[in-house]
Design a protein that fits this description.
With 346 residues, the chain is mainly alpha-helical. Helices cover 47% and strands 8% of the residues. The chain has 15 helices and six strands. Helix 2 packs antiparallel against helix 3 and helix 10 packs across helix 11.
């Protein structure tokens, strides 16, 4: 009994010692208040920034700082030039870099991401407006640690985004809206800001999402199809009902827009019969494809997400969406659908 008590006491003392060392390692290096110019380059990750802080003599321990940074996953260290000193604690330094309190206030960028657009189009906008390389963004979207951090921090994101068949992990999740960012904003800051907006937009729909028989990833996938097929809320809910009906009947969805996405084509481009019938994880036009695509095909608006949760009460099984006019025509049976085909001549 005494031996066990001794071991417990020793362990307790060791833990206290480690905590003391860690606390000391996060304190200021010295009382020297002379300003040191420290530069964080765009694209530098947290480990690189901590290493540079250590090289500049601004922190006591890079290893303890690693732990501090990674225990605070929502930190978004901003690129820029900072005035720091050795009299600042590690927490003060990291907070200043996280808040983007640079020597000179960076320019502000206003950027609008339009609903119904694909993620690659958003990435091109980001590359055009910020000093962020397209390929680096793709690498980030494929980074397992980054995706795991998002899954941990946002309850509407789950392992579905890591499905190997998905073209782009966050397709559909970045809410389309007008945003204001500093010119030196990091890609992670942009991503998390758009995800925060998505979280806010769906907050009033949480109850409906929770009682749905479909996961949020599946609801978002439906919403992305609805966004592409209909432009008004009445038609959106009817398209939603057709999706539900076809899923319940174990029918192929037969949605052209999924074939375009599967073939990496925009709706303005020509699509071949081969591509319309191609077997891929998105193409519901292929009659052997049952169920939903592996993931969203664009970024839907909150109205399309609502429609995916609240389908109309109709008996429609078919529809034709006129891309030129934006009008959608519905049919309850195949015979009526054939009449639509003859009427519109497609």
């Amino acid at each position: 009994m005494k031996k066990k008590l001794t071991i417990i006491i020793v362990i307790f003392i060791i833990i206290l010692a480690l905590l003391g060392v860690s606390f000391f390692a996060l304190t200021k290096v010295s009382d020297d208040k002379n300003s040191i110019t420290f530069n964080v380059k765009a694209g530098e990750n947290k480990i690189e920034i901590v290493n540079n802080l250590k090289s500049a003599g601004l922190i006591r321990s890079k290893y303890v700082t690693y732990v501090y940074v990674f225990l605070n996953p929502k930190l978004n260290l901003q690129a820029g030039t900072y005035s720091l000193s050795k009299s600042m604690s590690t927490k003060e330094i990291i907070t200043k870099i996280n808040d983007g309190k640079t020597n000179e206030k960076p320019a502000v960028v206003h950027i609008t991401f339009i609903e119904g657009k694909r993620l690659v189009e958003y990435l091109k906008q980001i590359e055009d407006n910020f000093n962020i390389n397209y390929d680096d963004m793709i690498n980030t979207l494929n980074d397992d640690k980054f995706l795991n951090s998002l899954i941990k921090d946002y309850d509407f994101i789950d392992e579905s985004i890591k499905n190997k068949d998905i073209y782009y992990s966050l397709e559909g999740y970045l809410y389309p809206d007008t945003y204001e960012f500093y010119q030196n904003a990091s890609f992670e800051t942009i991503i998390r800001t758009m995800l925060d907006n998505m979280e806010n937009k769906i907050s009033s729909l949480k109850e409906e999402i929770n009682i749905s028989k479909y996961s949020f990833h599946e609801i978002l996938t439906m919403a992305s199809i609805i966004e592409k097929e209909a432009i008004n809320n009445d038609d959106r809910k009817k398209v939603s009902q057709v999706i539900y009906t076809r899923l319940d009947k174990n029918m192929a969805l037969g949605m052209d827009v999924t074939a375009y996405y599967g073939a990496n084509l925009s709706l303005k481009e020509e699509i071949t019969n081969k591509e319309l019938n191609e077997n891929n994880p998105y193409n519901t036009r292929n009659t052997s494809f049952k169920g939903l695509p592996v993931g969203p095909i664009c970024s839907p608006s909150v109205n399309s997400i609502k429609a995916a949760l609240e389908p109309a009460e109709t008996n429609y099984v078919y529809f034709y969406a006129d891309i030129k006019t934006g009008l959608v025509y519905f049919a309850e049976n195949y015979e009526d659908f054939l009449k639509l085909k003859n009427e519109f001549g497609w």
